[in-house]
Amino acid sequence: MDVGLFLMPCNPPERPLADANRWNVDVLERADALGYAEAWIGEHFTVPWEPIPAPDLLLAQALRSTERIRLGPGAHIVPFHHPGVLAMRLAYLDHASGGRLNVAFTQGTSITDWRSFRPGAEEGEDRARLAEGIEIILKYWTEPGPWRYEGRFWTCEHVGPHPPENGVLAHHLDPLQRPHPPIAMAGITPDSGSLRRCGERGWWPLSLNLNPRVIGAHWATVEAGAAAGGRTADRRDWRVVKEVFVAETDEQARRYALDGNMGRYFREFNLPLFSDWGFLHLHKDSLDEPDSAVDVGYLCDRWLVGSPETVTRKLTELQEQLGGFGTLLVLGMDYADDPEPWYESMRLLAEEVVPQVPGLAAAPAAGAAP
């Protein structure tokens, strides 16, 4: 099993943005030094707890100071971008990364983001924009020009040389990785359309940090999509995000988690937001439990929090409960005010926990679609 990071990035709202940026880059550098396989950076515009509106800018900084870790936006909100511009920016970043770029796409989840940029959008329109936008991006990446695309939302061209006699102007921004960087999509609801699309297209499914009951249903959705697309889903492609804090003892780890930024993030942001959205059931073991049962202590009991021995046991149980997944993505937290326990947790996870967790047996590769 590989280990990586998923940075929403959960910086506290009072943290100056420059300081938050420095912390996030520092964490990526530390992950690279510890051998973490990958990291993903969120994109949000009106979420003070998740304050990065341009993950590619953070990634560009981290690429200069890391050597091996694969990095990617997690995820670009396609309806807010012109897909042709996004395709070319990502192609350039792929070259700058030396081929270490992963990419993820989403329609977005924040109501205030939608109201800021797409007020009055029709129901379901952003899902349609996401689908059309991805197809345009892939068309730029995989189909030689010239061509013209006329869709419901965008019209664009892959231009030929101009002027024809010398072609000093021309399309030239294609990805370094061919046919394109690996593509992922994240899912929340059990029947997530994004995860179904991953199965259909052979992309990487990414399950967000929810109750294992919900995460387990995600894989059934991926498999249904794979069957519809004539593919075999590969569990090694599955990324699962979890809250993790490893310390010398269970008591220390729980204190760092609950009394630190992790506990605060859920008390002040995640739980109030999920309550507003009617999503608290996604954190529950059983739908019969009342919403009032879901507090930070309830969540912490289900996080990967504890000593190396405890977290090894919990992670092994999670693998068995879900049927196996390829990469554990640690939900990134901002412990800049007291960083050493967080850095030690990252080290213990990589060096003492993950090597003890049984990996997946070889399985048929799904193969990525163009």
TrEMBL record:
Flavoprotein in keyword set: yes
Keyword Oxidoreductase in annotation: yes
Molecular function, one GO term: monooxygenase activity
A single Gene Ontology CC term: cytosol
Top-level taxon of the source organism: Bacteria
Full protein name: 2,5-diketocamphane 1,2-monooxygenase 2
Protein's organism: Capillimicrobium parvum
Luciferase-like domain boundaries: 1-321
SUPFAM superfamilies in UniProt: Bacterial luciferase-like
Keyword terms of this UniProt record: Flavoprotein, Monooxygenase, Oxidoreductase
EC number: 1.14.14.-
Record family assignment: Belongs to the bacterial luciferase oxidoreductase family.
